[in-house]
Design brief:
Elements: H1 4-16, E1 19-22, E2 25-29, E3 59-62, E4 64-66, E5 69-76, E6 80-86, E7 93-95, H2 97-105, E8 114-121, E9 127-140, E10 143-152, E11 161-162, H3 164-167, E12 173-176, E13 181-184
Parallel strand pairs: 6-11, 7-10
Antiparallel strand pairs: 1-2, 3-13, 4-5, 5-6, 5-9, 8-9, 9-10, 12-13
Amino acid sequence: SSSPEEKAILRRELEQRGVICDHGRIIAHKHLRYRPSSVNTASRRLPQTTVPWKQQENNAIRLKKVSGVYKVPVQINDAVIVSLIIDSGAADMMLSPKVANILQRSGTLSQQDFLPGQVYRLADGSRKKHMRARLRSVTLGNRTFRDVTFSIAESDNSPMLLGQSLLERLGKYTIDYHNGVLLFE
């Protein structure tokens, strides 16, 4: 858990990036119509983590361990930054209905982006059909990936996942658990 001072610093940094937070959860980004006047409108990318023991051409992104799982920040459609659980067992990225709604309201996810639904086998063995769509861009570190498929979770309480629809496009990647970073070429 972070101290109140660390939380205040993080909140200020996110606001400077044009991200709107509510009790520590990212709820919108600068492209939305309604935002506080204090939000900086300059477009920025997620910062890189300096990893001196790796070559410069590698991306290194700081991970955050939450309740036993590792999360990584990603920027979606240049509209919102969210933390996703790294899940190599998930076929697609999975976003909450709330994030999908934010993307639609920001105009960065339209009806043309939606794909036919798909039945997924969940970790408990059950099967569920989820709505799917295609993200125009997903930025991880200094790499931007185009046309990334994602599914929409059943509820806002479902975990948001960074699955194979993006992980396989990273090529070779490594999770350095000792230093808490995701490294990829």
